[in-house]
Amino acid sequence: MEKNLQRRAVLAAMAGTTVGLAASAPAGASATPTPAGASATSTPPERLKGYTYPLSPRGVANLAGKPPWHYVGDAVGVEFWTSPEAAAASLPTGLDPDPANPGHGFAVFIDWQFNGATDDYLDPPFSQYSEFLVLLDAQWQGTPVAWCPFIWVDNDASLARGWVQGFPKKIGSIRQTRAFAIDSPAAPAVGKGGRFAAVMSAGGRRLAETTVTLDRTAERLPALTRPLVNLRHFPRLSAGQHDHPAVHELTMSVLDNLKFANTWVGTGDLRFLPAPREELADLAPRRVGVGFRGSLSYTVNDLRIL
User: Fold this and answer.
1) pLDDT digit string (tens) for 129-141?
2) pLDDT tens, position by position, 215-224
3) Looking at the chain, which terminus has fewer C-beta neighbours within 10 angstroms, N or C?
């Protein structure tokens, strides 16, 4: 318990509410635990500033500044079922397969725009990025959750924010069909019969691709109906400590003010393609369910340590 409290102190830079479960402190826990290895007199304050690497004299060079982090985006995705054995093999210690729907999950491509506290959306190279992720049904202590085994982004600031949260982000290239607020033969309609495609590649190899045909409206994206669980993992480099990470803990995302708009569902296809040093294709779809396209937004200011 003491070790867990020390870990919580390291993460105390964040705070918020809701697609996670409400956090509660263990009985008898101090409201302000002392960070591991710290004391009232041992370590002087760090003169360099910033939230993530690189810390710097003015604190503006870091990849990701302190929360809150605001997101808005357009998502294209497909529901799928993979081998229950492959899905179970992807789960970390502490999560179990969901017996209600073994092997079930979603593949989601998202075109994002980000904002921190300084109108970052006015800096498009920093604030715009694309993402591809897989979400698999799982259970944590009997609670239905979604586990993210793989995720790729094309922006290093997004990579840094993801690692802070526990998302296992890697760098890739993600593209999806765009829609515009004008009728044109160059774009599909966000409506019945509209067709959207999305692809993800990394290391020069295409790894995932989908095509979705819209049919009817829906209240929300099918892929975001469960709390998201990730694994924060930061290893040690010290000799003899390689198998004893400095941080190794399950986290539950807290998504404040989660909203959906203009959501459509229909049919879709999905393929995961094999490549060296990748394991996405181990989760190859055996069958697919609904395809979908819609917009979403939320704010991140907190997470829950499980």
Assistant:
1) 999 999 999 999 9
2) 999 999 999 9
3) N
| Mean pLDDT score across all residues of the chain | 89
pLDDT of residue 27: 35
From the number of C-beta atoms within 10 Å of its C-beta (0-12, 13-18, 19+), residue 39 rates as exposed
Helices (H) then strands (E): counts for the chain: 4, 13
pLDDT tens by residue, 161-171: 999 999 999 99
174, 147 in Cβ contact below 8 A?
no
Q: Within 13 A of 109's CA, how many CA atoms are on the CB side?
A: 26
Strand intervals (E) in 119-171: 128-140, 143-147, 151-153, 169-171
Residue whose tokens read 């498009």: 124
Read off the pTM: 0.85
Helix intervals (H) in the chain: 2-10, 84-89, 124-127, 156-165
CB distance 227 to 143 below 8 Å: yes
What is the spatial distance between Cα 148 and Cα 261, in angstroms, rounded to a whole number?
23
- What whole-number percentage of the chain has pLDDT above 90? 85
CA distance 283 to 149: 10
